Amino acid sequence: MAILPTNFRPFLAARSVLLAGSILLAACLAHGQAVNSCLDCHSAQPGRLEVTPEKFSQDIHAQKGLTCVSCHGGDASNYDPDQAMSRKAGWKGKIDRKQIPQLCASCHSNPAYMRTYNPGLRTDQLDQYHTSMHGKRLAAGDTKVAVCTDCHSVHDLRPPSDPRSTVNPVNVAQTCSRCHSDAAYMKPYGIPTDQFANYSISVHHDAMVVRGDLSAPTCTTCHGNHGALPPGVDKVQNVCANCHAFQAQMYSKSSHFKAFQDKGLPGCVVCHKNHAIYMPSDMMLGAGHAGVCMKCHAPGDKCDLARSAILTDLTQLDGAIKDADQSLRLAESSGMEVSEARLAQDQAQDSLTKARVTVHTFQTALVDVDVQAGMKIAAANLKAGQDAMVERNHRRIGLGICLVAIAFMLVGLWLYIKKLES
């Protein structure tokens, strides 16, 4: 029998300890996985009853250390169904829809408890839900309305910051549409089911999904999330004003503000619609198909004349800015210095933007103030570009004269050298 060197024995001892530790760790992990009878059973269940360890591991609750029994009760360490699903062990089984908000609130409405997980998370979701149309109808016995799990999912809940989350800003509209675009499901409520289709062609959807602007409006931005309510007819402008503050200020000065209120018309929606909001353009003031004014007003009336004057002002300023841009681009391509005028073009564009906002006052005098300020800047920039081109021409003429003079001098020098040689 071979005798190992003395200095080799500590190595073997250390290796034995590591091997034993590895075996013990593997046994502990295997035991930890084996005692979750809930997942072991539901991994083999069909359809909606299937909950795999992989799926549950993605759940924010599982990641925070909560388990099946946190919501369903019971004893997950026991494989005997009578023991695992014992009422004495607190087993609830399938949670009735009417009980879901209160069950979620048992944790989410406890500030002290939630602070240990996420101090910034609000704990008034249940109170808000009770004020919503969903909460009110659920309290009245309607179990078809949305509850927590309909929006947030069940066993694979993810935080809103996760792009895969059903309540991530990009996915909110799709989540709402699962009910609100189902004509058969929504038929008893008598409300439209084209909201998602209209939103999908709106400027808000384009900003959110196409351009990736997560601050752009989605369903919950206007309707609220836990306290979701449809905006009242006289409150639509207040909802829009949360983002479009300057437009709202201008609108409050217009004749439409009182007229719409008196007639019970929903403010901004009259011209811009609600879900299918298109990119605004000057042609909304036109008399053609894209125009909105003539849907209410008669040709030749006071408002029609104001509409025409405002459109003319905006068209003139837009054209003046484009003319100045073209002149400056030509000067730049010719190597002329027009950077100061190019910067001033931003001021002219700002005047046009401001004028388009001031349109909401529907007062031609106020719009004209902004337009004339922009026209003055654009005219100066146009002149700067033209003057640069005149200077370029002068330089070219001067260069041509210099070249001719140099040519004559060279010819004379050549003739003089020939004369000397002869």
Please, could you describe this protein's structure?
The protein has 422 residues and is an all-alpha fold. Among the domains are: 231-278, no CATH class; 302-421, Butyryl-CoA Dehydrogenase, subunit A, domain 3. The protein has 23 helices and no strands. The chain has helices spanning 9-34, 37-42, 53-57, 60-63, 68-72, 81-84, 100-108, 111-115, 125-131, 133-139, 148-152, 169-180, 183-186, 195-199, 203-210, 219-223, 236-241, 245-251, 255-263, 269-272, 302-333, 339-358, 364-421. Helix 22 runs antiparallel to helix 23. The chain starts with 8 loop residues before the first helix and ends with a helix. Mean pLDDT is 90; it is low at 7-14 and 16-34.
Q: In short, what is this structure?
A:
The chain has 422 residues and is an all-alpha fold.
Radius of gyration: 37 Å
CATH architecture of the domain at 302-421: Up-down Bundle
Shape: elongated
Secondary-structure element sequence?
HHHHHHHHHHHHHHHHHHHHHHH
CATH topology of the domain at 302-421: Butyryl-CoA Dehydrogenase, subunit A, domain 3
Number of strands: 0
Mean pLDDT: 90
- As residue ranges, the low-confidence spans are 7-14, 16-34
Which CATH class of the domain at 302-421 is shown? Mainly Alpha
**End-to-end distance, in Å?**
119 Å
What structural class should be given to the helix and strand makeup? mainly alpha
> What summary fits the major beta sheet?
none
| SS strand fraction | under 5%
How many alpha or pi helices? 23
In which range does the helix fraction lie?
A: 55-70%
